Amino acid sequence: xxxxxxxxxxxxxxxxxxxxxxxxxxxxxxxxxxxxxxxxxxxxxxxxxxxxxxxxxxxxxxxxxxxxxxxxxxxxxxxxxxxxxxxxxxxxxxxxxxxxxxxxxxxxxxxxxxxxxxxxxxxxxxxxxxxxxxxxxxxxxxxxxxxxxxxxxxxxxxxxxxxxxxxxxxx
Length: 171
Description:
By secondary structure, this protein is an alpha/beta fold. The protein contains five helices and six strands. The chain has helices at residues 29-39, 52-64, 85-103, 137-144, 165-170, and strands at 17-23, 44-48, 70-72, 109-112, 125-130, 154-160. The two termini are 30 Å apart.
């Protein structure tokens, strides 16, 4: 009847994880990402977007830049027309393969929605990029927490646009 609120920590941060914020305009994001690819030593990176549509678009844009990026979204199962069980099995197999190829290190860069933000522990992920800044503090923590796992150093880079400033300051 008298619930207690217990806050474990006062700050949203993880040991061994360095966080950077790049203030840009939307149209500058892809150029900034390209620059990061050329300047950073990336073992593996996860790039987060706020929607499945943006994930697919960004993965295509990265490919046009000459890099390979696989994409992973929850939306693949939200097919509008009726599909067979075989089709659903193929979609599940495709998602499974993308995840395991990334986990085995066969893919260097994964563009994802928040479906990949929780419960995924891949030791070689050393960079997380919030291409779209998340709207919720817990989402932010879970996203950046994919890097710097198991005592390794990690890097979180956040692209901040004018519309994101208040959310960033809140977080």
